[in-house]
Each structure stands twice: as structure tokens, then as C-alpha cells.
Amino acid sequence: MIRFKNVNKKYKLDKSILTAVKDVNLEINDGEIFGIIGYSGAGKSTLVRMLDGLEAPTSGSIEINGKDIAKLSSKELRSQRKKVGMIFQHFNLLWSRTIQQNIELPLEIAGVDKEQRHQKAEKLIELVGLKGRENDYPSELSGGQKQRVGIARALANDPEILISDEATSALDPQTTDEILDLLLEINKKLNLTILLITHEMHAIRKTASKVAVMQDGQVVETGDVYDIFQNPQQDITKRFVNEDDNPNAKDLSMTVDEIIKNYPNGMVIRLTFKGTQSQQPVVSQMIREFDSLELNIVEGSIHQTQGGSIGSLVLQLLGTPEDQNKAVEYLKSVNVEAEVINRG
Amino acid sequence: MANQGIQSYFQFNNVNWSAMRQATWETVWMTALSMIIVAVLGIILGLLLFESRNKSGFGWKVINWVVSFLVNVFRSIPFIILIVLLLPFTKDLVGTIIGPKAAIPSLVISAAPFYARMVEANFREVDDGVIEAVKSMGGTNWDVIFKVLLPESTPALISGATVTAISLISYTAMAGAIGSGGLGYLAYLDGFQSNNNTVTLVATVIILIIVLIVQTVGDLLVKKIDKRTL
């Protein structure tokens, strides 16, 4: 259990005071993948650095399993850090060491003997799928492979918590997915708590069960990823959800404009399906229900989150105005969220 | 006349080859021994400069100030003046003021600050992220020094040592002016003072060969150790 209690962090600048983190309260349960999302400068990294004891909060406390990180002696802090693995955006591997030696580094620091180090590193290399590359140097690997080394290294001391600080931000989309899958696999296999710091909603949606949205040093919204995706409250959260949901928002609005021009009497609606609804033939039932009803499909997408799937469908309803309105009522009656974008 | 014109460079029977061999050997070991001491001292001073640079404690500030001051002062004194200035110190330290042994203290004192600055700059080139990664693993400052700073900057430290060794070779020749022995001394004594231009030329060629060897060995080592690129 990680607990942030009224955490504030202020930096004294030459003439002003910069508040990097403001009154943050969070609880992260064991075995959970918890996402923290925000744009750069939102205070995410400061929060993580404080969790790792690299910086102390100005006020408030950060506890891991009841231990206040800021109150540990430097020796206790070093042994605490061994229980927290960390992976980074730029991997931070030592180029002078081979893959195997990089993974053994935390074990060397912990004073594990050579034989055990070797065995442990071999296991980890296999876990992250880099068998056969033990004696290569980081410069000989691709970005995704480097991050796999980073993950193996972070797991070397059997940590309780894994912090991923923008670990996929320097990778291409496909490699990002591979790394996220690996994180999910590790989370399930080792029952590891993972703290996922990112600015990509995609990464949160794919892996995290809970999320905190940060803006200007504050947590503005927090809860289950599934709920937040369905029903974002804050503007910034909506922006993140939209970015992921609908990266082609501009294309969509242009298409909608065109369709309205061609069929001025239709009604454009956006349907949101949750969980098992997305697997039911709601739309075809609706067409059969109302005789005059016809439709144009404008755009559709479906996303998997750890809490279930969320589908979205933009339609234009054509037919008599009564049937159009009744169709919307029908959708509401089967609990599909229907938002009218344009009434024709 | 033998001492005039271009012809004077090629009077090889005037060269005392055993003295030349002796002088070459003296130059080599003066350079090698002082370079070893310079490397050790330079890395220690460079590390002190690096570690004390951004620390807030009063003790660190004093260390930084003292080391920077000494480094700047000794780096600024022209070598030929430094060697004369240090004569009494050399006499107390090694018991003599002539011969290759007597040259070593001034060689070290002038080259170590030079190398220390290079070492500091090399350490600053080491990726902060990697240092932070080691700290986040629970590493101590010693872990950072021995597992990150030194191994990650080894190629740069070797390139710096190569440059320093080459300037040490030219310093040993200058030290010849006050009787240090070695090729510089021979060129000065037999070449200049006895008007034997061939000796000067041969000494020059040997020094060039030594420099070339040092540079080549340094470059090869760096190439072998550096794993940053494919």
C-alpha cells in the first residue's frame, strides 16, 4: 500500500516559489496497476521522485506499507529503494556493461554473490524475452529491447513496487504495446504493484485499473480507468480521453459536416456502449423496430480497458422525425448512452 | 663547416648513439612515471572537483574552492618558470635538482591540474539519468563512483590521458634546459651548445616517434573500450 497524504512540494527559485506538487492525496493498493497521467510539468515526475526518496516533500507524507519515506535514515532509505524498481524514458542503461552485467548491477549493489547474481540475471533475461543477447551491449539493441533490459534490471531485487516513469514515451506505437503487454504480464505473474507515469491515455487504458489525472501539480480527477473513460469530468481528462478515443477528431467533424449537407434531415448521434453491451446487436434491433428508419454509419471504434470494453459509434439517423426521436428513446431504454450531435 | 647549412643535419657520424639511446630511455621513463602519478592525482582531484561542485555543505564548498584555486594557479604558471620555482621543493623531496628524477615533481605538478580539469569535464558528461538510476537502486556514492562515473567515462579518461602524456613529453624536453636529462637535454647540450645539428634532428625524430606511438596506442585503446556505438 502506497499512501500520499496532503503532499506538497515547493521549490525556491531566485525570486519566486514554484509549487510543483499541490495537496496530493492518493492511495495505491498492492498488486494494482495505477496510472498517473498529465502533460509535462504537471508534477508527475516530482511525485515519483519523492516516492523514491530522491526528494523530500515540503509538507505532507508519503508512506509505503506504513513507513514514511521522508523519515528514513539514508541507510534505511537505500534498503527501501531496493524494494522499488524503476524504469525510465531513456532507459538509463550503462553502455559500458553488457546486458547481463546491466541486469546484475542492482544485485551487485545489494551485495549478492556472483553465482546467485548470474542465475537471477539469466531468469530475468528469459522473462523479458532477451535470451541469447546476454553478452551484447545496449548500443546493439533497439529501443524496445533496451526497455526490456531496463525492466529486467528493475526486477532484479524482487521489488514490491515498479515505477514506470514515461517508460514507453520514447518508443513507437507497436513497441509501446509490446512493453505494456510485458508490464501486464509481470503484474499478473509477480503480483507487483505498478505505478505507471505517462502522458499517453492509451498506455493507461491498456494496463491500468485506476488512474489519477494531474494538472498544475494537483490531482484533478481520480478513479477507475473504466469509469473515467466513460464519464470524464474535468476538461483535461476529456482531452486525454478524446486524444486516445478519437485521434481523428478533426476528420470526424469534417465528415459530419459533409453528411449534414447531403442529408439535412438526418440526426447525428454518438452512441457509447459499455462492457457486454458492445457485443449485442442493439443497432440492428433498433432498425427493425422503426419502419422508416435508415442510417448512415459515420465512425466507430472500440477500446479495451482493464475494466471491460468501451465502444463508440457515430451514426446519422434518417427517416421520419418521430421515428428518429423514438429511436433515441429506444437506445436509452436499453441503456446505451446516446448523445445527439446534430438534430438536422 | 659542419655546423652550417642544411648539410649540417646529416653528419650522422657525429652522433653519439649510446648517449642518444640513454636519453631516449630517460625521456620514456620520465614521461611514463610522471603520467602514472598524474593519472592517479588527476582522477582524485577531478573527482573532488566534480563531487564538490553542486554540494551545499560548507565543507564541500571549502574543498571546491581550495582545489579549484590550486588547479587554476598551477595550470597557469608557464612550465619553464614552474620548474625553476620548484627547485627548493624538488631538492627536499627527491634530494637532487638534476637528472630525470628531479624533473618528476614539476612535471606532475604542472600536468595533474590540467588532467584534473579534463577528468571533471568527463565526469560531467556522464548521463545524469544513469547516476539517478543507480541511486534509485539503493546505490551509495561509492557505487556511483566505481560503477558509473569511472567505467562510463573510461574512453574519455584515456583520450585525456593521451593528450596529457603528449604534452608531458614536450615538458620533459623543456626540463632539459635545467639539466633533467632525456632527449631535450641532449638536443640542448650536444645539439645547440656544441653546434651539432644532426643530434638535434635525431632527437626531434625520436620524440616524434614516441608521440606517434602514444597517440596510436591511446586511440586503439579508446576504440576497443568504447561501446557507445556499434
Automatic annotation (TrEMBL), chain A:
**SUPFAM superfamilies per the UniProt record, alphabetical:** ACT-like (SSF55021), P-loop containing nucleoside triphosphate hydrolases (SSF52540)
Q: Which GO terms describe its molecular function?
A: ATP binding; ATP hydrolysis activity
Q: What is this protein called?
A: Quaternary-amine-transporting ATPase
Q: Which family does it belong to?
A: Belongs to the ABC transporter superfamily.
What this protein catalyses is: ATP + H2O = ADP + phosphate + H(+)
Q: Does the keyword ATP-binding apply?
A: yes
Entry keyword set: Amino-acid transport, ATP-binding, Cell membrane, Membrane, Nucleotide-binding, Translocase, Transport
Residue ranges constituting the ABC transporter domain according to the UniProt record: 2-241
Q: What is this protein for, i.e. what is its function? A: Part of the ABC transporter FtsEX involved in cellular division. Has ATPase activity. Essential for cell division and viability.
Keyword check for Lipid metabolism: no
Cite the PANTHER family for this sequence. Answer: AMINO ACID IMPORT ATP-BINDING PROTEIN, METHIONINE IMPORT ATP-BINDING PROTEIN METN 2
Its domain of life?
Bacteria
Pfam families named among the record's database cross-references:
ABC_tran (PF00005), NIL (PF09383)
| GO BP, sorted A to Z | amino acid transport
User: Which SMART domains would you find in this protein's record?
Assistant: AAA, NIL
Q: Which organism does this sequence originate in?
A: Apilactobacillus kunkeei DSM 12361 = ATCC 700308
Q: Which GO terms describe its cellular component?
A: plasma membrane
TrEMBL record, chain B:
Its record classes its membrane topology as: Multi-pass membrane protein
Segments traversing the membrane: 28-50, 62-87, 93-116, 156-179, 199-222
What biological processes does GO assign it? D-methionine transmembrane transport
User: Would I find Transmembrane among this entry's keywords?
Assistant: yes
Q: Does the keyword Membrane apply?
A: yes
Residue intervals of the ABC transmembrane type-1 domain: 24-218
Cited Pfam families: BPD_transp_1
Return the GO cellular component terms, semicolon-separated: plasma membrane
Question: Which keywords label this protein?
Answer: Cell membrane, Membrane, Transmembrane, Transmembrane helix, Transport
Give the InterPro entries listed for this entry: AA_ABC_Transporter_Permease, MetI-like, MetI-like_sf
The cellular location(s) given in this protein's UniProt record come to:
Cell membrane
Principal localisation: membrane
Q: Which PANTHER family match?
A: ABC TRANSPORTER PERMEASE (PTHR30450), D-METHIONINE TRANSPORT SYSTEM PERMEASE PROTEIN METI-RELATED (PTHR30450:SF1)
The Swiss-Prot or TrEMBL record describes its family as follows: Belongs to the binding-protein-dependent transport system permease family. CysTW subfamily.
Q: What is this protein called?
A: Metal ion ABC superfamily ATP binding cassette transporter, membrane protein
Origin species: Apilactobacillus kunkeei DSM 12361 = ATCC 700308
